[in-house]
Every structure is written in C-alpha cells, then in structure tokens.
C-alpha cells in the first residue's frame, strides 16, 4: 500500500512538472512570435521610408522627430519582448509612440485619443506586453484607412478599472472589410495576442478575455467597431 501511494504521488508530481514545462515552453514560443509580429517588416520599412522622405524634402525637423520616436519605440519593444509583465505606463508609452508614428504618416486620415481614468494607477498596474497594439494596428489598417474620402477617422482607447478588473476599450469609426491577403500579418498578430492571453489565463488563473462587436447608429447602419480587453488588475507581478 505504501509503495503504491508513493508511486502514484511521484507520478502526479512528474505529470504536473511536465505540464508546467510545456506551459512555459508554449508561453516562450508565443512571446517570441509576438515579438516577431510587433517588429512587423511592413511597419519598419514604411517608417524608414517616411524618414527618408522627410530627409529628401529637407524637412530635417520632421525627420529628426520621426527618427527619435521610431528609435524609442524599437527600444521599448526589444526591452519588453521577453517579459511576461510590464507596468501599464510603459505599455501605454509604446502604444502612444506607435500611434504618433502612424499619424505622422497618414496625417488627416485619422485622429486618436488615449484616455486613462483616475482609478487606474499606471506605474503600479501590470499588463502583458504586446497585447493591445495588434488590435490598434488592425483598427487603423483594416478600418480607418478604408474610410471614403480618407478623412474623418477617429480612434479612441479608454483604459479603466471595473471593480478588480482592468478594461481596455478600443473603438473606431472605420469601415469594416475583409482583409486582403497581403495584410494577413495583422490577423497573425491578433491571433498571437489572444493565444498569449489565454496562456496567461491558465498559468495565473486569471479572468481575462477579449470581445469584439460591430457598432451601429440610430438607423442601424454600421458606424464603427469596438474591441474590449479585460483582465484581472494586479498591483505587482513577480
């Protein structure tokens, strides 16, 4: 009896250890792919091409501004790519830099606003890096840039606290269309973000999820799109 109990106990320990190792390996794999998706060759090429354009048109101030923001964003992405958690302040900084760079390129095609409510303390609230940006990127490229007339786009990101959960609402007034094959990398970034959030759910027993829905006006005509990411709010992470 003692031998059987001991054997079963050791077997459970080995199985649990193997599961934890598999979870860790899966998370590392997803983080690597998230980093690759974030370092999107299209975005890097277009950003460098824009800097080159400003240099050629003698707009040295714009070229310097663009290059400084681009370098800062790359530094943040590389620094945080192997972390499970970063404080919200850093994540929002990276997101804002990305939005500034895209707005420099597309000018009047869209405007954006990032709002963080007073109940959210950025420097002590931790979130998984590389989760929010893929959805923002999708809102810009799949919807806002497809608006008729190429003007009037609005993107709003509201980060709030709902009881013990952090809520990130991404809302736009773009035109929702099927994605062209050449822009399939946007879907890949979103799939990786969702998979990473699910993996963290399992590891930390978090209550996190992502909901998406089409928005309609009073005449029941499509007028935009909304993505809401919710997760347990944590004031510290190991």
From TrEMBL:
Protein name per UniProt: Signal transduction histidine kinase internal region domain-containing protein
Organism the protein comes from: Chitinophaga tropicalis
InterPro entries the record matches: Bact_2-comp_sensor_kinase, Sig_transdc_His_kin_internal
A single GO cellular-component term on record: membrane
Span of domain Signal transduction histidine kinase internal region: 31-109
Pfam families associated with the record: His_kinase (PF06580)
Origin superkingdom: Bacteria
GO MF entry, a single one: phosphorelay sensor kinase activity
């Amino acid at each position: 009896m003692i031998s059987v109990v001991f054997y079963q106990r050791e077997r459970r320990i080995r199985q649990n250890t193997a599961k934890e190792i598999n979870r860790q390996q899966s998370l590392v794999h997803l983080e690597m792919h998230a980093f690759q998706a974030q370092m999107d060759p299209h975005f890097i090429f277009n950003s460098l091409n824009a800097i080159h354009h400003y240099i050629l048109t003698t707009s040295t101030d714009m070229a310097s501004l663009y290059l400084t923001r681009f370098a800062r964003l790359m530094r943040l992405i590389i620094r945080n790519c192997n972390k499970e958690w970063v404080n919200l302040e850093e994540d929002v900084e990276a997101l804002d830099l990305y939005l500034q760079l895209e707005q420099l390129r597309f000018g009047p095609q869209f405007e954006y606003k990032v709002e963080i409510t007073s109940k959210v303390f950025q420097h002590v609230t931790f979130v998984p890096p590389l989760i929010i940006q893929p959805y923002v990127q999708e809102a810009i490229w799949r919807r806002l840039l497809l608006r008729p007339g190429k003007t009037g786009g609005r993107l709003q990101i509201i980060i709030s606290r709902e009881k013990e959960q952090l809520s990130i609402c991404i809302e736009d007034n773009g035109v929702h269309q099927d994605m062209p094959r050449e822009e399939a990398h946007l879907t890949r970034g979103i799939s990786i973000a969702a998979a990473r959030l699910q993996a963290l759910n399992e590891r930390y027993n978090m209550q996190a999820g992502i909901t998406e829905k089409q928005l309609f006006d009073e005449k029941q005509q499509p007028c935009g799109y909304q993505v809401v990411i919710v997760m347990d709010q944590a004031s510290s992470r190991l």
